[in-house]
Amino acid sequence: MSAASSLLSEKEFLCSICLDVFTDPVSIPCGHNFCKNCITENWDINTPYQCPMCKTRFHRRPELHVNTFISEMVAQFRKSVQMKASSCPDQRYAKPGEVPCDVCTGTKLKALKSCLVCLVSYCETHLEPHQRIKNLRRHKLIDPVENLEGRMCKEHDRLLELFCKTDHMFVCQFCTESDHKSHHFVPLKEECEGKKAELGKTEAFIWQMIQERQLKIREIKHSVQLSKEDADREIADSVRVFTALMQSVERGQAELIETIEEKQKTTEKQAKGFIKELRQEISELMKRTTEMEQLSRTEDHLHLLQSFPSLNTPPHNKDWTEVSVHRSSYEGTVRRAVAQLEETLSEEMEKLHEAELNRVQQYAVDVTLDPDTVNPYLILSDDGKQVNCGDVKKNLPENPERFSYSPSVFGKQSVSSGRFYYEVQVKGKTDWDLGVVRGSVNRKGYITLNPLNGYWTIWLRNGNEYKALGDTRVLLSLKTKPQKVGVFVDYEEGLVSFHDVDAAALIYSFTGCTFTEKLYPFFSPCNNDGGKNSAPLIISPVNHTD
User: Fold this and answer.
1) Of 392, 395, 431, whose CA–CA distance to 523 is shortest?
2) CA-to-CA dists, residue 114 to 18, 81, 534, angstroms
3) Whole-angstrom Cα distance, residue 492 to residue 254?
């Protein structure tokens, strides 16, 4: 404390009328001190004039003068309180949103407690009487709250200390004898304990929701990471493939140009040899004509006759009639170079298809056939993995899920998000249908397989005719006849693709699809065809290609 507190305790600086620190303190004849305004208002109301503390009566109203000594002590005390407030968290000035002391004048300190009897909030200094005075110590003190008037019964002006469980409202003791008579009451503390238990359950539930959402965040981040890894892998594959193709194109172009240039060089070399040979012959012939011209002008008859036989005989030179330089043929050169590129591209495509098949196989699902959807002519194996068409119609319960005419059956498993893959052995069959379907598709009577009707499928007919059953049927040209077909669905991507598992080749893809409900695997072994198509469709375990 300050110097003032070393002489007097804090209670000595409180006016017994307003219970606040003295403002303009005055001393009356009996020796007691009060705020000048407090004692003046008291005497204005009450007569005869007496001391509020000791009840000493005065025949005349005492003349009041500010006690300068006490006033100076109070000033030092206020200063010490401010210093204490700045250093003690409980005594600092009230900030916005905090409960202020109702007694402090001017800048208010933060309230330390609220009194449910006085309906007043007190800072540490003004709370002191409640800790010292016997009657005030009986008051109910709680942590500081605002709107203490709201804790009073408006009808009886008494503290709300009970909870009416019948009307679900707060009541005072008097309410139990009037409007709420015979109702079920419990103390607020008891009701609070119950609500705290409920809050505990709610809090636990909310924490569970938080943990679930945190888990979902981790799942989403993990999905993003996996997506990034997929993207990085695709980029790396694309860079590798296109680099190889560009190198192959550049190499093929260089080889093609070199081949053409070599042919042209050969032609030019041959022509150069012919020209050299012709020029030599021309030179010899020119020499012969010069000799003949000289001989024809000679006057030496003997010389002319002697030389005539050798000069008049035609020279034995090469017959150039059939000699020619043929233009080099480049027919097929470019085509063969492009064919080589196609072969390189085909090799790269095979590698890509194999990698793609390996990736989609990661989403393999253990599919079993659904007996509730099977057509009565179909025969299912006990393990639900095989189906073929028989010749005898079985007596099966009729239900909306069962195919009545089409020899078809659903798989039990479905997909409504994410990815889904399964494989089916089709070896030995001449006809079959495979794919995925919406769960709500029509299963009665004749069915047209196309996406508009909720079917994304391919089929085989007559042992060699493969088609994708889109809005229009697409004839598929396959290098090999698939013995095992893989079916892959990416729900969000709107993709349904079919793969030749053994050849690691793509058969067909439906892209840009819009899915709004569950998709199910779809199987049709088609009719028996007198035993020609008796082999079953077999759902096979997935063996990864790597």
Assistant:
1) 431
2) 17, 20, 90
3) 45
Inter-residue contact 11 to 132 (CB < 8 Å): yes
Q: At what angle do helices 301-312 and 188-296 cross, to 10 degrees?
A: 150
162 exposed, middle or buried (CB, 10 Å; 0-12, 13-18, 19+)?
buried
Q: At which residue do the structure tokens 């020209």 appear?
A: 275
Q: Are 367 and 413 in contact (CB under 8 A)?
A: yes
Residue type, 540: S
State the Cα–Cα distance between residues 202 and 195, nearest whole angstrom: 10
Residues 143, 524: Cα–Cα separation, whole Å = 76
Closest CA to 146 of 91, 106, 98, 93: 98
Which CATH number applies to 1-87: 3.30.40.10, 3.30.2310.20, 3.20.20.70, 3.30.450.40?
A: 3.30.40.10
Distance CA 73, CA 5 (A): 9
Per the structure block, which two tokens stand in for 514?
Answer: 């819009």
Location of structure tokens 């079916």: 487
| 8 A C-beta contact, residue 152 and residue 133 | no
Fold (CATH) for 362-540 = Jelly Rolls (2.60.120)
Residue pair 468/510 in contact (Cβ under 8 Å)? The answer is yes
Specify the residue for token string 């804090």: 10
Question: Can you give the pTM of this predicted structure?
Answer: 0.53
What is the reported pLDDT for 48? 82
Q: Give me the pLDDT at residue 372, please.
A: 95
The Cα angle at residue 92 between residues 88 and 96, in degrees rounded to 5: 145
Mean pLDDT of the chain: 87
Q: Is 388 exposed, middle or buried (0-12, 13-18, 19+ CB in 10 A)?
A: buried
Six token digits for residue 539 = 């759902």
Q: How buried is 421 (Cβ within 10 angstroms: 0-12 exposed, 13-18 middle, 19+ buried)?
A: buried
Helix axes 333-360, 188-296, angle to 10 degrees: 170
Q: Residue 126, exposed/middle/buried by CB under 10 A (0-12, 13-18, 19+)?
A: buried
Which of the listed ranges 173-182, 323-332, 511-520 does the model predict with the highest average pLDDT? 511-520
3-state helix, strand, coil in the chain (%, to 5): 40, 20, 40
The pLDDT value given to residue 374: 97
Give pLDDT tens digits for 294-311: 888 888 888 888 888 887
Residue 126: partners with Cβ closer than 8 Å, 6 or more residues away = 19, 20, 101, 103, 104
**Euclidean distance between CA atoms 418 and 380, whole angstroms:** 29
Q: Running DSSP on this structure, what letter comes out for residue 434?
A: E
